[in-house]
Amino acid sequence: MFSSAFLFKSFVKGNGLKHSDDFLESLKAKIKDDPTMSMRRLADYFNIDESTIQKAMHEDLSLRSYVCVPRHLTTSLKARRLERCRKVLCYLKSNAATVKIFLD
Questions:
Q1: pLDDT tens digits, residue range 36-76?
Q2: In the chain, where the domains are located
Q3: What is the largest CA-CA distance in the chain?
Q4: CA-CA distance, 45 to 56, in Å (whole number)?
Q5: If DSSP codes are grouped into helix, strand and coil, which group holds residue 19?
Q6: How far apart are the C-alpha atoms of 65 and 101, rounded to whole Å?
Q7: CATH architecture assignment, domain 17-60
Q8: What is the spatial distance between Cα 38 and Cα 53, in angstroms, rounded to a whole number?
């Protein structure tokens, strides 16, 4: 079926870009210029895959992504929270001797 002269092509995974010092320095500079830029936008800017940006940030630069999502309490959620807090306070007042709070 295959001739003896048939050779399998060896493939190299990736292009080694994430390990390049020049790439890491430019990535650091871009993050410092605009820390709110998403990994997807960084990948588009550098014209590379998003997973390469993620690995470079997590493994090489030891950075973690952070997303700030504002949380707004509705009036029903506020009422439910207040009710639960009052129950906890009432329980703590009546069972103060049996409650142990551990802090690490």
A1: 888 899 999 988 889 888 888 888 888 887 777 778 889 99
A2: 17-60
A3: 87
A4: 15
A5: helix
A6: 32
A7: Orthogonal Bundle (1.10)
A8: 10
